[in-house]
């Protein structure tokens, strides 16, 4: 089977999450990705555990490094540095997330490499850009705090909360992939390469979408609302006879159906609740009514009944439950990749569906230095 990015070579100098996530996306779509790692330790995430696989590999590293080769090079050694330069110039795309200026000092920066290879696409990922924030450390948790995400996450009267995954890195990795594919399209048309730049802070501000626009377009500073939504109601978990039921009612028709299933159709005609804007304005009263109506039965009974009537509702799954749900829906969410010793490792499936050139799963994440530099 052919892949959309067959014959595309990527030199991956990135570490941890945003860069490796982006290069894994390219690798899944057919690109040949050479991961450059430091001697002895390799990517930082190789030691980020527990948890570990049965053979002692950190699952964090496993999550973003499939379909790649691993080449160990000491960029402080002249011979290894020269080899790294050869790999970079032999590639279509270079990806790096060192502090601004490091690759330039090594002779691996965009200006120097593109002077030799004008068609090179060069993706740099930083925490705060190459300007005044160049020296600031770009860790996901720090960006979640400084970028406002923690100010809108958590209970109103509780402490600011981080999201339960390094979401800023993931979003930045996705933006990076879009940028590189856009640059590739331009190069296919013109032969001209370009620099692709992403920073974690700007990526987060863009990913805050409606929360960002509340400030930029209306001057409203969003606040923490727990599990409630600033613009939609009911859009939150609500306690039942046992357990909690998540309701994601996005329009008035769905609310009317909800009220009908709960045995209170007149509630949808109450002027306090008849429209979404009214429900947002009268959220405490609406919630009290819903809690009363949901109390007779457990969430496990309400969820399938409401779903059957096309009201978005469900219980809160743990990660295992989430994968089990995906499996029950036929989404085949786990792929098993072969290791050199004959064993396999299970990893989440790439969510991109392509009818002609779908993602491929060729190899498990490589052990450190498992490959010789490509020629």
What would you say this structure looks like, in words?
Keywords: Transferase. Residues 346-375 are annotated as: Disordered. This is CoA transferase. The chain is built from 14 helices and eleven strands. The protein is an alpha/beta fold and 375 residues long. It has two domains: 9-207 and 332-348, 3-Layer(aba) Sandwich (Rossmann fold), CATH 3.40.50; 235-239 and 244-314, 2-Layer Sandwich (formyl-coa transferase, domain 3), CATH 3.30.1540.10. A six-stranded parallel beta sheet has the order 3-2-1-4-5-6, sandwiched between helices. A three-stranded antiparallel beta sheet has the order 7-8-9, with helices on one face. Strands 10-11 form a two-stranded antiparallel sheet. It is elongated and about 75 Å long. The model has no long low-confidence stretch (mean pLDDT 95).
Provide the fold topology.
Layout: E1 9-12, H1 18-28, E2 32-37, H2 59-62, E3 68-72, H3 78-89, E4 93-96, H4 102-105, H5 110-116, E5 121-126, H6 140-146, H7 167-190, E6 194-199, H8 200-207, H9 209-218, E7 235-239, E8 244-248, H10 252-261, H11 276-281, H12 283-294, H13 299-308, E9 313-314, H14 319-328, E10 334-338, E11 344-348
Helix pairs in contact: 1-7, 7-8
Beta-strand content: 5-15%
Low-confidence stretches: none
CATH architecture of the largest domain: 3-Layer(aba) Sandwich
Largest sheet: 6 strands, parallel
Average pLDDT confidence is 95
Number of helices: 14
Distance between the termini: 24 Å
Keywords: Transferase
Protein name: CoA transferase
GO molecular function, one term: transferase activity
InterPro entries: CoA-transferase_III_domain, CoA-Trfase_fam_III, CoA-Trfase_III_dom3_sf, CoA-Trfase_III_dom_1_sf
């Amino acid at each position: 089977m052919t892949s959309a990015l067959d014959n595309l070579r990527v030199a991956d100098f990135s570490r941890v999450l945003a860069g490796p996530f982006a290069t894994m996306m390219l690798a899944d779509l057919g690109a040949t990705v050479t991961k450059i790692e430091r001697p002895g330790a390799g990517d930082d995430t190789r030691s980020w555990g527990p948890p570990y696989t049965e053979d002692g590999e950190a699952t964090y590293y496993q999550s973003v490094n499939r379909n790649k080769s691993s080449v160990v090079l000491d960029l402080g050694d002249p011979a290894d540095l020269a080899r790294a330069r050869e790999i970079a110039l032999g590639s279509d795309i270079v990806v790096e997330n060192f502090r601004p200026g490091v690759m330039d000092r090594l002779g691996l920066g965009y200006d120097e490499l593109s002077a030799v290879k004008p068609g090179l696409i060069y993706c740099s990922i930083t925490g705060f850009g190459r300007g005044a924030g160049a020296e600031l450390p770009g860790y996901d948790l720090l960006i979640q705090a400084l970028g406002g995400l923690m100010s809108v996450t958590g209970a109103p009267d509780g402490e600011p909360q981080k999201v339960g995954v390094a979401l800023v890195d993931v979003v930045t990795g996705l933006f990076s992939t879009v940028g590189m594919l856009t640059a590739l399209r331009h190069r296919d048309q013109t032969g001209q390469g370009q620099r692709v730049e992403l920073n974690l802070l700007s990526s987060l501000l863009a990913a805050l979408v409606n929360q960002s626009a509340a400030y930029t377009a209306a001057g409203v500073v969003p606040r923490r609302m727990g599990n409630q939504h600033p613009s939609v109601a009911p859009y939150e978990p609500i306690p039942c006879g046992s357990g909690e039921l998540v309701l994601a009612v996005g329009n008035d028709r769905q609310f009317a159906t909800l009220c009908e299933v709960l045995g209170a159709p007149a509630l949808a005609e109450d002027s306090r609740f008849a429209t979404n804007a009214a429900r947002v304005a009268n959220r405490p009263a609406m919630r009290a009514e819903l809690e009363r109506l949901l109390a007779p039965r457990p969430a496990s009974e309400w969820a399938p009944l409401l779903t059957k009537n096309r009201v978005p509702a469900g219980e809160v799954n743990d990660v295992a439950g989430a994968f089990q749900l995906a499996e029950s829906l036929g989404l085949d969410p786990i792929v098993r990749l072969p290791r050199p010793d004959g064993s396999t490792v299970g990893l989440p499936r790439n969510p991109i569906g392509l009818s002609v050139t779908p993602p491929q799963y060729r190899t498990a994440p490589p052990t450190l230095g498992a490959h010789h530099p490509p020629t």
